[in-house]
Amino acid sequence: MRALSSNRAVSGVGTGSGADTRLAVEAAVDEAFRPLEGREPDLVLVYASVRYDLPTVLKTVTAAAGSAVIAGATTSGQLEGGRLIEPGEGIAVLALAGGGYRFGLGHATGVQADATRAGRALARAALDAAGPVRSPHEAVLIFSDGLAGDQQELLNGIHKVTGFQIPVVGGAAADDRSLAETFVFAGDRVLRDAAVAVWIGSDRPLHVAGGHGWQPTSLPLMLSDVDGQVVKELGGRPAREVFWENFRPRGGPDTKLYKKAGGYHSEHAFGLIQPDGSLLIRGAFIDSDGNLRTFSPMPPYSAVQVVSCAPDDLLEVGEQVVDSVVRDEEASVVLVFDCVARLDILGERGHEEVRRLQQAARGARTFGYYTYGEFARTTGVAGYHNATIAALAL
Amino acid sequence: MVAYGDAQAPRFDSEAETMRAALSRAEGAAAAAYRDTARLIRLLTVIGTPSSPGRLIDRTLTVLSEVFAADVVCIAEAIDDRLFVTASCGLPEDDPAFTTGWAVGPTARRVINSGSAAARHGVPPEDLPPPLRDVTTSSAAWIPLSGVGSEYAGDLLVLYRSGGDLFTPADLQVLLSMAYRMYSAVEARERGAAIERLAQAGPGLARHLDVGSLLDDAVLLLRELTGTDSTWILTVRDELAEVSAAADTGEDSGKRWPIPAADLPGWSRLSTGEAYVGPGDDEDPMMLVPVMRDGGVIAVLAAKGRRARSFSKSAVEVAMVLASYLSVAISNGELYRRLKAREQELHRRASRDPLTGLANRMTAAQRIDETLADSPTGAAGLLFFDLDKFKAVNDRLGHEAGDELIQQVAQRLRKVVRPGDMLARFGGDEFVLLINGASDLTDLTDMGRRIQAALADDFPLRGERVEVTASIGAVLGRRGTATASAMLRDADAAMYAAKARGTGRLEVFDDEASHRSIDRLDLRSDLSEALDRGQLSVVYQPMVELKSNTIRSFEALARWRHPERGNVPPDEFIPLAEETGAIVPIGAWVLDQACRQLAAWQREFPEARLTMGVNISAVQLERGHGDLLDVIRSAGVNPSDIWLEVTEHMDTAEDISSQVSALREAGVHFALDDFGMSYSSLAYLQRFPVEGLKIDRAFVAAMNEDQNNGRGIVRAIMAVADSLSMKAFAEGIETQAQLDALLDLGCGFGQGYLLSPPLSVERSTDALRAQRDRS
What we know:
The structure holds two protein chains of two kinds. Chain A is an alpha+beta fold. Helices cover 24% and strands 35% of the residues of chain A. In chain A, helix 2 (21-33) packs parallel to helix 3 (54-65), helix 4 (115-129) crosses helix 5 (151-162) and helix 7 (311-325) runs parallel beside helix 9. Residues 1-5 and 251-264 of chain A have low confidence and may be disordered. Chain B is of the alpha+beta class. Chain B has four domains: 18-186, 2-Layer Sandwich (Beta-Lactamase), CATH 3.30.450.40; 208-250 and 257-338, GAF domain (Beta-Lactamase), CATH 3.30.450.40; 361-509, Reverse transcriptase/Diguanylate cyclase domain (Alpha-Beta Plaits, 2-Layer Sandwich); 527-764, EAL domain (TIM Barrel, Alpha-Beta Barrel), CATH 3.20.20.450. An eight-stranded mixed beta barrel of chain B has the order 20-21-23-24-25-26-27-28. Chain B has a six-stranded antiparallel sheet with strand order 3-2-1-6-5-4, sandwiched between helices. Classes of the chains: A alpha+beta, B alpha+beta. The interface between A and B is large, with 38 and 40 residues.
């Protein structure tokens, strides 16, 4: 019965792994395209570890995808259908057809130099590519070079084109926690210092959600001195000192932190206090020079709180986010953008997270990657997050 | 200090629960306080950060959206009953709000009119813009931006929030303060940007030395700087205002210019140097800014538009700066024009003859070369001419009259000149006419005739009628071979050739003339040095009493032995000497030689009662050329033994008459040489104290030719001489038949080769000795 009346999209997800790029990507593409039963996909998303020969990955996908819109990013691990693909391991491909969606692809470079301009150009290009007829419901899916420029500025530029009514979702590209080079994909192009947008038009409402599960461990503080990504003073005192003072591991003394090469304490971050009292999370760490540094610059004189999290909170919020975007049974796939910091904190429980996310997605299939930043703009202009999980159902 | 979130705190204790709740409230209050403070500081920081006006607005709206959780923040401008969005955070860039605007809702209207901010929760649809009409619950805040309470208020900052909380009075206070600051900052930066634009454009304006193009540029700049629909610049002269430049949307106000400046709106302010902002004729707001100079209004910058902001204080300030730029640029332009005019005048003076305004020598030479280069026929004609009797006029009526005659002549010649031709004065009475496009000699002779015809009528001068003729030399120069200097030289030579043939003649230069002219030029220069170099000598031709064949007199004749050319005939070098003025020293020298020689012969041959004839030129008789009488006396001869021979060509200028009278009174005799060769005016003979006529050799030669009635002419001349009690002397007797005929007619004296050629002193002395011995 449902099949008769449904306009549900058909989607397939495939993964590939191993040292050989061609074998890995071919395996992923074959598996992803199989459920489409020969139908040409409208949208293909490609997530890959930076370890692969990326031009080969994209060439192979392009060859199979016909006229589909192809976008994607490098990752720090992927998740699909309840399965965690560890950072550094694989390639994941989503092929989607039908569902009444219209897609338009745009990209822009020069994010580092002028993120606002790039954002605006990107959104205009994607809107133009989506065609002259506007859809009743629209959203913008973006992938950005997570190490290039001010991501909120990028979003500000996009916002000028979308306006307040069109939600934005997506993730910053990652590089298996190396923090060296990340790439985004547009068609068969592999781009740095760039961002890619897919303008999505739909006859059904498109839901975007984001959540973080972090809790404040300090009183509100004034970010009294900040220089780009380096936080110098909090409330007029040396920032690092104040930051450390407010460390309160919420997971209890037994919590096993995921140990990573940088050794930073992922379980503490900043929360930018929003007008409604909510917090925008900004990951922070002590760099090799001893500076307190964030992944993305925080506005000077912002009101912030030091925040921390417990794995249970993170798991719970993930479920809520996915649940909130899957409102009916029409959803075919849930696109998930999960911060690698969450994975770091969850450690071994990362596998549990992806299972629970898939359960929350009900009949839809989860497809996502671990990011260096997440986009979930729904109200206001602010919408760039750290240590957050964001999702969109198609 | 509260130990916040301490993991060791008892979790299930009720006291602890109470404390936790209190803590949570405290935290909420602190967060709210920090958030409010932070948003204030963030806004101030954004407003204080250097950027362009556009970016400042953009950044401020983005931060407002962030810190007030507003879905849409925009700046809108009320024009009539529409709100046009000029900047926004939250509206897509293609929203019609930017182009066609929204209807001004009741709350917005109230805010515009009252100048007070307003907030509403559960905003009624009529207060919501179309993109927010679907939102079920919404809050909005309207903040007046500019000109609060002023006549042209109309800019608003509007924030819309879907769902969420009411904008509180505290929020409104923050927003009002921010709006004011942002607006001030924007204005300051707009002013800064406009001043910067002006600073860039200012030198450009000053470069315009033409006021018209200056104003054309300035009016566009004014429109750009004020952001208005229409701008124009009025110039004010003699209390009338006239539109001199306009940049508008093409609407016709129906006003007819010029209008009295006093009818301009706000003229009383403008005339004191202040700007006027207020309603124009059709009630639309307008701005008028005076451009002042020396305390007076020379122009008015005008701008009109429906947007109140166009006439903000900063816009007026910018326009005032532009006005002062313009004042300077207009002055510069005028100074430049004066300077240019002066330069042109100087150039004109350098290139023009000041007396006639014709081209001068320098310009003529330049034009000849240009014409040769550009002429469609590849040739150019040149006429070189002077006025035949000009010197006489100058001498008789004075130099001022001479100048006046030159001006009159120039005036007539101008009418002859065709477009493209050039008439020049070379100084004195010399003119040059360049004929553009001349192709053959006919063109030259035609033009020469036109010149002569133009001069044919008498010229009225100082109550007299003066006849003027021109001697014209013509030359045709061809591109590639001719040059200005060569053409001038050749035409000059041709003119002399013409002059040699008489007055009012035209001579076309040819190769033969060319050689002659070059010879003449060389000779002229050699002649000036001949006397000093001892190349001149005097020979003496006996004048014989025909009946007795006795030498009664000698005619002293100058001879020039040129070191290269040998003997130069007197009829060649004497005219040259007259032209160059060398005749004065040469003539004086010859007279001196002749007188001394006569004195010597008179001492040796007293019985011969010898006299001496010496040719004299009119120039020698002019004032200032020494006293001939002194020369005669100092040689020790009796003036009455001297016959000065003059020619009929000698002009009767008044200033020779005193010299002539003095000579005559001293006893010096005058004889008219070559009598009958040109027009013989009996009145002239009467006026001039001539006592002898020399019958020209041509008449003597013709005496035996019946067909020419040869003897009749000689007889007639002798009759004239007789009737005026003059002596007649025959010249050029070369045959016995001539001698017989002259004797037959009763001619007393004669000379010629038959009797004796001109002799050196020695041979003359020999002849006198032989004569004495004979007798």
